[in-house]
Amino acid sequence: MNKINKKTHSRQVRHFRIRNKISGTHDIPRLNVFKSNKHIHVQLIDDISKTTLASATTLTHEGARCNVEWAAVIGKEIAQKATKAKIDQVVFDRGGYKYHGVVKALADAARENGLKF
Question: What's the pTM value of the predicted model, to 2 decimals?
Fold first, then answer.
């Protein structure tokens, strides 16, 4: 297994370990984070009915990248969509990523704009 596959595999193992412990409902959905080298994707997921309640991504913004500044913008955007859907509390799923940098900035921006973890 080369280094890239080993790194991806390790993240997936961490993600599955986290997902075995948390689940989202319609009242308290799961806030899922996925980041690639270029973009950040966030979804509010109801695991019981297997539906996405709201989502936000940097793909919809011109010139957006996967960095701390854009993570804060996406965190604010998902919090606004959640309050519009009358959701104020979520379960945070960091997707196997370390709670550092982009993931931390996204979570902090979502908290500042009304979401409770």
Answer: 0.86
Structure tokens at 99: 């709670």
Q: DSSP label at 19?
A: H
Virtual torsion, Cα 84, 86, 91, 97, nearest 10 deg: 0
Of the candidates 108, 24, 95, which has an alpha carbon nearest to the alpha carbon of residue 69?
Answer: 108
The H-or-E segment that residue 10 falls in is helix 3-19
pLDDT in tens, 9-53: 888 888 888 888 888 989 999 999 999 999 999 999 999 999 999
Pull the structure tokens for residue 39: 């973009």
Which domains does the chain possess? 3-112 (3.30.420.100)
Q: Are 29 and 44 in contact (CB under 8 A)?
A: yes
Residue 113: closest CA among 91, 83, 85, 86:
83
